[in-house]
Design a protein that fits this description.
The complex is a heterodimer. By secondary structure, chain A is mostly helical. Chain A contains 15 helices and no strands. Chain A has a domain of 189 residues: MetI-like fold, CATH 1.10.3720. Chain B has 4 domains: 42 residues, no CATH class; 115 residues, Dipeptide-binding Protein, domain 1 (Alpha-Beta Complex); 110 residues, Periplasmic binding protein-like II (D-Maltodextrin-Binding Protein, domain 2, 3-Layer(aba) Sandwich); 207 residues, Dipeptide-binding Protein, Domain 3 (Dipeptide-binding Protein, domain 3), CATH 3.10.105.10. Classes of the chains: A mainly alpha, B alpha+beta.
Chain lengths: 323, 528
């Protein structure tokens, strides 16, 4: 690959990064307005039933919640650009401390799930395309579509009932903590990992299958078939590389989901990830935490989408070498 | 159940002989010699044992929690602070009586306005400092100081002054007499920490020393080797996990990942009870659910309208359906059978559509629609309870419209704002605390906005009355007044249900708070 060819990708990355930053700014504004629009504020939410007007007032003063909204937003933004995430309003702990290890946990679960789910999904997709319209194809379509059709918590409870209560193979809660080593952690997250894998595999597998089948009707595949190549070789060497682009996009979307969309699985398995923190913070109107986690989620989407585009271009000679 | 356990059970039930037991166990390679069932009965019945890690999975933790003793909102921080790492001057024993804790003894003047507390000597904080009167003054003032956001502010407001007589003697002067002052000091907010320190750091005198706290997720503490109670703190380590999902808690206990859980699922607890190796513990405490009517707002300013609504609720059915039988019927006042002066002699209000209709007619409100605001946030099953109430009242010709409110912000936007709303009350260990908190004229949480002259006179008089008999009479009269003229419908008192593995041993459970008065970590033990 020659340098000038890379340039188009570099330019794309730069452009998308810029747009991504604008997106994040807009999102931070939306989050702020959204949380402001919710009834009540942190002082009331934290004090709950025990809030008396006096204590609420004292609390508001202490947290500077009595300042006007735009002042609070820009103070926060000013600090945020400088890399200061601020402190949680609810318990005065630095947001970076609250989020750091949870985000690592979230990524850990997402990464392990992806390592299991992506190869399985792609492989199943290829096999399904290879044995299209056979009993095998229909069977895996049926199974994966059923797992995606059930709500995740249902899948989770079924797995707990089967693999944790009936046969005590895996633990029912995945409350990993720093005292555990890697193997203990991996063992602890078996069930949430399996749940998430079952949910995301169907999507990726269907897309792989569809993309390959689409390619299989192209003239060059016909040519390959006429040359007398084996069907497996045709699918894996000729069709699959050309089907990569849509597959990469779907994988990226599913990876993003694994990072940002797993709150329910976290609750069911008591997994200390970022999702639970976000939910708690929204219900307590703890804006700095909501902002930081919201932006992390948004950034994940932006980054993964960008990565998907870059990889699609890199995987496609026609896009890689534009005329 | 392991094979050894099964054999032990058979042996204990007399199904197999001692000789067979030994033969079977050695046949499968187990060591009968070590089995406790072969020891004389006396050794088995031995009291609490030291050791082990207690793992509790608790509902009621949020990532926004902190350790400030003034803001302890839910079970996880309450059990951690009051039950595990800290002490108050007074604790509540299993029979509901005040027992000296950090205080050694106390006495008061006959008008109950001056209280002299002798402190226990030789108590050390986790940081090694010894506790004296200055620490107590500092800790109580944590809730009295300017700009405090403590929920216990109302409790300590009546203290006019605190004086240190000597290092271990403290004199409280009250604004008015308060015969229940020792009870007040047992409150879970009023824990004692070292002077001039930040009490949100978790350094106290308690049975365990806090090692790690991640709000809403996990707390970990190890036994305080210097603990001043020698007959408590049996576990080596205590781990508290925040598990808000009831199914997750149940599964974790079933699969042995935790030893204790709170708040069992009422729908499945009957199945849980049948499981081997699990004990379900019920406490009938002070917790009650109410429908609070604002007596300053039409139509609830009319006592006949209120009485009509009180006669229109079928309490037995409420307890049966909403609480699945795990509770008791209420009598339209907030005093529980677990309270000292519960008026058992007061006739139980019954479901009576005819009387309801009569009072409704007398109030001239046969056409009125009563709007009842409820949300699950008020208490579990509040919306269902509202709908049930609506059906029951319909039989008396009363129209209730149940308005479902969002859970989010319920306590700030609905409770005490809407004229009629569903309310959760944890209850209070004394009549005075309960009435002063929510029924006294002008009290911050007087959610019925009720002001009854005779009631308020009695409240002040009873508070300072040291004569048990007279005092009882007064509280009985007050319960009657609330029942007949108050603005609150109290359909039910809810029992607390916790569950644990049967390896956990405990004495009689105190009913003042859940899990043995939050004190499970220091009072319970592993049997083997």
């Amino acid at each position: 690959m020659k340098l000038p060819k890379l340039n188009s990708i570099t330019a794309l990355v730069l452009k998308r990064t810029g747009l991504g930053l604008v997106t994040l700014l807009v999102i931070s504004l939306l989050i702020f307005v959204g949380v402001e629009a919710l009834p009540g504020d942190l002082a009331q939410a934290v004090l709950g039933q025990s809030a008396t007007p006096e204590t609420v007032e004292a609390f508001r003063k202490e947290l500077k919640l009595d300042l006007p909204a735009h002042v609070r937003y820009f103070t926060w933004l000013g600090a945020f650009v400088k890399g200061d995430f601020g402190n949680s309003l609810a318990n005065r702990r630095p947001v970076a401390d609250l989020i750091g290890w949870r985000f690592v946990n979230t990524l850990f679960l997402a990464a392990v799930t992806a390592l299991v789910a992506v190869p399985v999904a792609v492989l199943l997709g290829i096999l399904a395309a290879l044995y299209r319209n056979t009993l095998f194809d229909k069977l895996i379509s049926m199974v994966t579509l059923s797992t995606i059709s059930f709500p995740e918590f249902f899948v989770a409870y079924i797995l707990i009932a089967l693999l944790s209560v009936q046969v005590a193979v895996f633990p029912s809660i995945a409350n990993i903590n720093p005292q555990m080593n890697l193997w203990q952690k991996l063992y602890a997250i078996c069930l949430p990992c399996l749940t998430l894998a079952l949910v995301v595999i169907a999507h990726m597998m269907r897309q792989t299958r569809a993309a390959i089948i689409n390619i299989l009707s192209s003239p060059f595949i016909e040519m390959a078939n006429l040359k007398g190549l084996r069907r497996l070789r045709v699918v894996v060497r000729h069709a699959f590389p050309n089907a990569l682009s849509p597959v990469i996009n779907v994988i990226a979307l599913n990876l993003a989901y694994l990072v940002v969309g797993v709150v329910i699985v976290e609750v069911v398995f008591v997994y200390p990830g970022l999702g639970q923190l976000l939910v708690d913070s929204v219900s307590k109107r703890d804006i700095p935490v909501v902002q930081a986690s919201g932006l992390i989620f948004a950034a994940t989407y932006v980054l993964l989408n960008m990565l998907a585009d870059v990889l699609s271009i890199a995987s496609n000679p026609r896009l890689r070498n534009p005329r | 159940m392991s094979l050894q356990k099964k054999l032990e059970n058979l042996f204990l039930k007399g199904k197999i002989t001692r000789r067979e037991f030994i033969a079977y166990t050695s046949a499968v390679g187990l060591t009968a010699v070590l089995s406790p069932v072969l020891l004389p009965a006396k050794a088995q019945a031995a009291g609490p044992k030291r050791g082990g890690r207690l793992r509790m999975g608790l509902n009621g933790g949020a990532t926004s929690d902190n350790l400030d003793p003034g803001i302890q909102l839910a079970m996880m921080p309450q059990t951690l602070v009051y039950g595990t790492i800290a002490n108050s001057l007074v604790e509540i024993g299993a029979n509901g009586q005040p027992v000296p804790e950090l205080a050694e003894s106390w006495e008061s003047t006959p008008d109950a306005r001056k209280w002299i507390f002798k402190l226990r000597k030789g108590v050390e904080f986790h940081d090694g400092k010894s506790m004296d009167a200055d620490d107590v003054i500092y800790s109580i003032n944590w809730h009295r100081k300017e700009g405090t956001k403590s929920a216990a502010k109302a409790l300590v407001e009546s203290i006019a002054s605190m004086k240190k007589e000597d290092k271990y003697t403290l004199v409280f002067e009250m604004e008015n007499g308060n015969a229940d002052f020792p009870y007040t000091l047992s409150d879970y907010h009023l824990v004692i920490g070292p002077k001039d320190t930040d009490l949100t750091k978790g350094v106290f005198t308690g049975a365990y020393v806090l090692k790690d706290f991640e709000p809403g997720v996990r707390a970990f503490a190890t036994r305080n080797l210097n603990y001043f109670k020698s007959d408590r703190a049996w576990f080596d380590e205590v781990e508290i996990l925040g598990i808000n999902d009831v199914n997750a808690r149940t599964n974790a206990l079933k699969t042995g990942q935790i030893d204790v859980m709170n708040r069992c699922d009422l729908k499945t607890v009957h199945l849980f009870k049948r499981m081997p190796g699990i004990q379900v513990m019920r406490q009938d405490g002070f917790k009650h659910f109410t429908f609070a009517m604002r007596t300053d707002t039409a139509p609830f300013d009319n006592n006949d309208a209120r009485l009509a609504l009180k006669y229109a609720v079928d309490r037995e059915q409420m307890v049966k359906t909403i609480l699945r039988g795990y509770g008791r019927v209420g009598n339209d006042h907030p005093i529980s059978v677990a309270n000292r002066y519960h008026a058992g002699e007061l006739a139980q209000r019954q479901y009576d559509p005819d009387k309801a209709r009569f009072h409704l007619k007398k109030a001239g409100m046969s056409k009125t629609t009563f709007k009842l605001h409820a949300a699950e946030a008020a208490f579990k099953g509040a919306v269902d309870a509202g709908v049930l109430y609506k059906e029951q009242a319909a039989k008396a010709g009363i129209t209730i419209d149940v308005v479902r409110e969002p859970n989010d912000g319920y306590w700030s936007n609905v409770w005490m704002k809407k004229p009629w709303s569903a309310v959760f009350w944890g209850g209070r260990p004394t009549e005075d605390m309960m009435f002063s908190t929510a029924y006294a004229k002008g009290a911050a949480w007087n959610d019925t906005f009720w002001a009854h002259t005779r009631f308020n006179e009695l409240l002040v008089a009873a508070r300072a009355e040291l004569d048990e008999k007279k005092r009882r009479g007064m509280y009985v009269e007050m319960q009657r007044i609330v029942r007949d003229e108050g603005g609150v419908v109290v359909p039910m008192f809810s029992a607390d249900l916790a569950a644990a593995t049967d390896k956990i041993g405990h004495d009689k459970l105190a009913a003042n708070w859940e899990l043995d008065g939050f004190r499970a970590p220091e009072r319970w033990w592993f049997k083997s």
